[in-house]
Design goal:
Helices cover about 20% and strands about 30% of the residues. By secondary structure, it is an alpha+beta fold.
Amino acid sequence: MRQLKGVPKTHVYRIIRSGEVRINKGRVSADSRVQSGDAVRLPPIRISARIAEKALAMAANVVRGTPARDFSILLEDEHLLALDKPAGVAVHGGSGVSFGVIEQLRFSRPDARFLELVHRLDRDTSGILLVAKKRSALKHLQDQFRERETGKTYMALVAGRWPASKKVLDKPLHKYLLPDGERRVKVVTRDDPDGMPSVTLVKVVKRLVGIVGVTEESRAEFSLLEVTLKTGRTHQIRVHLASEGYPILGDDKYGDFELNKTLSHSERVPALKRMFLHAWRLQFNHPASNERIELLAPLPSELEAFVSHGSH
């Protein structure tokens, strides 16, 4: 996807199925894993004029100073910048998205010699995102993420009463692809060779009771959770919470779809039209001074309004 930006995902999977993508000269499937030392061959691909024109138009809008989003900067110096990413915007282009956060930053800062994502957030997750402004800073920060020296804490809202005693979720996760090529993650057994060790810490912050239906009698209890990642797997928080029977509100992949629909159209509480997952705190060592930094990003207004409507 990174190499074929702008190419429709359906076409990418088509060339894989037809055998045009090869690993070590052999045919592969879409979920084949690439390992260090593999030789990967991609066929020549022509991007349609329509897609190219769309990308150029988006680039022109950014250059003219009208990016699709304005990003709230939490911290910036010569080594890095930290921003509060809104929900609904991808961190980078690809998979049908021409311009993500990093592309918009590069176009709005044409004099910047180096801008690279240190880590990622799902498109529908809001919150703190780190960008390196020097290659040395990128390596230093990514090493911290890999060695689990960072502190990543999220706020998530789930339906029901989360058991206060359930504080550690230690469940291996496995990534796989749906028939249409969309990525999914599931919990697997400890003896599964494809399972990646995954640990999530959960703490109940607040109990909420809010009216979510169209009648006065339709009430539901919610749990506002502080969730800390000890590992950084794809969709880790979403899958771990859902596997316990407490999917995140608004999650369109692993959530309670009927409840999500009710909440998005509710007239008795502020409607919830996005996933309630927000990266609100990040701790790391500064790549130059080694000073321990703690960044905080408050809940976005639409999530705060939903929480405020509930009562303890």
